[in-house]
């Protein structure tokens, strides 16, 4: 239930109402946008129709969105996430780039250099890798995170890395500025709940067979556990077309921005699985309104330990950065 | 088999070779691009390795593309289709617009006016409608085509309309400048073969569950029957996501342009089924390299007999045209 | 709208009502099942609520099924189709078998022998083949149909063959007892309408991306054009799983039998594309309530011109026939 | 790499070879089936061709299966799992039944009674529920597990319950005889690795967009971590068909049994999401060769806290048990 509060309702009374509702076992979230103040009240099937008659309450907002906190019915202004001074979702484009896996200190430094020199702000790199085969390279673990953090510091970059297990969250938060949830863990609800208790932004990738609603409900797990800093990411879904690794659902970008206030990124590397499709699909994602891109870059893509076929090299990345930043004025 | 001919091979000898191969029951197509001349030789499992030793032949081009004539291995320069002076696929953007169905003379005139005033060049309108239900409006038939042709003439537009049956091809060619094959008929091979004997360009929409290869093989039916004027169109595929009518596969655009020399259009109206997604997905398609767009426009979208939810009105169309033409310089 | 007629309503009055409704431009179908008599009235948005007050009318049956004639709301007893004395859909199992393509007189005779000796009643064989590539074997045409008919006559079998074009319907009806519509033509509405004017049963295969509703609406095209003899066939849908040619949707069988009164067959050859999966999937289809099976059989499967990997040989077919007939008592 | 050992190779020498390979950092698994003894050697790209020349080695078995331990190339005899005296995968049919969620002590006792009286051997019941919405009932936690264990003991049943987090494994092993991994966690690789160190059988459900290979690689994570007791379960995949909750891929059953030696179950409750489809799809699964079924049963299905529409009641379950056990002789 979403409640719009009267413009002249005293803050103290609102506070009391919230306390009373929480005391009754309900989940209550409050948002203020200019003169508008709203409550999302979620919980047991209590009859709350009497609320409509309170002087505090202007009206009950009809809403069919089951993702109460992630939904645009509750919060109309876009969420802007500030990571150490860098703003995500404020109308500018944010590019995250780096290798699939952190392979060595040298490699991640070389990546960081490419990323920084071309104007991107956030360095990605996996230390715990969700590989289909148990016999594939599983990542360097904490050692990789140390390399990542040092390389990022050297080049003035922020960091993002994937977390696969509730047991690893604490470790990750020491090294990464943003915690990534991979597609395969999008409905790992234990992980989502714990990330909701964390202070770092969460980069939530859409599962391979997740609907928009599934993705927003996954975000809701994080939001309702207390963490409002969630970034959504379209990274391709599974369809019958097997020429590409996945089918990148570009429409997800404007639709998620309509349904929700959260920033929406696109990952054309996983979205297509094809190196030479990263550029046109980056352009398409930006044209469709993406707040940011996540790109797999490696100094020597053919030698990458993982995802080589979808990783681009320094020259291609330089071209991409020029294209997406020159084009942005026209497409927003 | 694709054969690159020697640069100094006399035309008369090439002609003789072609005749001999045809006499042997093979399908032979010839293409000249600057100094490059190539043959595509298709047919029975005859041992043609001896060709490599002919002085006429420079080399056998290794090609795994089963769509010999539609493929970029055979023809490297892009196909440009000239329709009464308007060029399609020459690097500029072509917009086709109009209603789903021709409903009345008045309606199609009103549509033509909107289309022309905003700078689009081709008027669409269905006279034979492939409706899921036999009880839904099935189109005005020939009467509709007469209206379409007159309205287009009035506003200096070209016309396109859908053909659903080999028996209707002759009728359609009298009224439409381009013949459309709908998604449901993409593998109606009888229809494709007959359209191959036709002199008009064919606008071939991707089937709802067609792979890139399926689409290019459908084009190959038309090309191998003698008609080289084929335009491909991405219009969304069926996936598990049901928020949208279809999932628009934007990656199909750059990939089809890589695999083939044929122009590639995008239809964001069917691709999403959602009126307010037509603009961002048009931008995305153009950013990804589309040669053109097909847009459903109606003077009063809510009153459209069919596809109302995905049809835009005059104002939205005016905005779309401005956006896609202003942005194009940056994305090509 | 479905109307249940009073049990004592005189036939003459019902006839008059039907005529009046038809005169008003409505489509009216009548069905009698024991003492129950029902009308399906379809058409323009005329207010027919007054019908509820007629003494002829017992009640208006609430129905959300858009496939009025194919739906179980209108006709509750199962449709049994009689083909020259053989009953389809009467609770017994009907097996259709034969090669993908008719390749020669000898081949189809050899097939007919295998089919007949193992107790199947209907011989399949394609004379016009819907091949993905224009360069693949396209079928023997009328010559093939002559062979099919003669071979079937020799072994006391009925025949079924695929029709791909309205122009071929007349030819096909001379040689085949049942006309097949392939998956790629399931929404070739021109073809469906013409088949509705035909006296032969139509075997309608589910399209690769057709929902249950799409399939039943395709059947509705045939039924509403006057032909009540429609057999539905599940033959696999396109999904992300590429180990099999298609994903066979066994649930379609009991669901289509619940939604409709039409017989439902299964085609495990196309459904899986894998020779050694034809037996277990035939058993599964029968266990789920299929009225019949369509199986690709060839005297020498490895030499089949088309669909070799999914075609079984004489020994495997003999085992299959024994299994499905021994098991049937337990699964119906 | 799979190595078949010489029949007369001394056990002591084999042991030495295994030790040497392990010392070199390779993963080595050994299997004996009658006189046949095989090694699966997995790991770094070491040149192992010299092994072919050892007297111990009979031959190198060519295998393209990436799931070395789960694959039928390594182990040809079917894996039979013994749970406190009950055999799974031995050719007989095992039925697991019970509610989606454990709701109360009374409810799970009532369920256990129904399950036991109809001859099923294993009681299911979720204590930690993976719900799409954070606001839906999340399960009773440990309290629920206590109820489950007591109810099962009362009626002589075994228990199975879902584990969602590595942190919960220890708790689950105290109460459940089999640990279930849900579809959403099929590629939660951290969870899979830890379950590999566990002594209890793992019931691994196929992810909603997992290929056969993905599922077998997920099983490989468990096997390669030391736990050989894995049961696979087909529970439906996501497709465009939305009449059913999922599309049940019955072909997965015989195919997984061909590719692997592990037992294969089917879950028609989740597979269809429709109460009245549970019976025909159970019959189909058994006919296709399933080793077992998992069925959602509740004393009062309409009142179930979760999955009510796909849960059957006591009468329907009684009919189902009779059907599947009477039919089994014919379909195996």
Describe what this molecule looks like in 3D.
Helices cover 33% and strands 19% of the residues of chain A. The model of chain A has no long low-confidence stretch (mean pLDDT 94). Chain A has 332 residues and is an alpha/beta fold. Chain A has helices at residues 11-23, 105-117, 142-155, 169-175, 189-195, 212-224, 252-259, 268-272, 278-287, 314-331, and strands spanning 2-5, 27-33, 36-42, 57-61, 81-83, 86-88, 94-98, 122-124, 158-162, 178-181, 202-205, 230-234, 264-266, 292-296. The first copy, chain A, is built from ten helices and 14 strands. The longest helix of chain A is centred in the last third of the chain and has 18 residues, at 314-331. Chain A has two domains: 2-61, Phospho-2-dehydro-3-deoxyheptonate aldolase, domain 1 (Alpha-Beta Plaits), CATH 3.30.70; 81-331, Alpha-Beta Barrel (TIM Barrel). At the A-B interface, helix 7, helix 9 and helix 10 of A face helix 7, helix 9 and helix 10 of B.
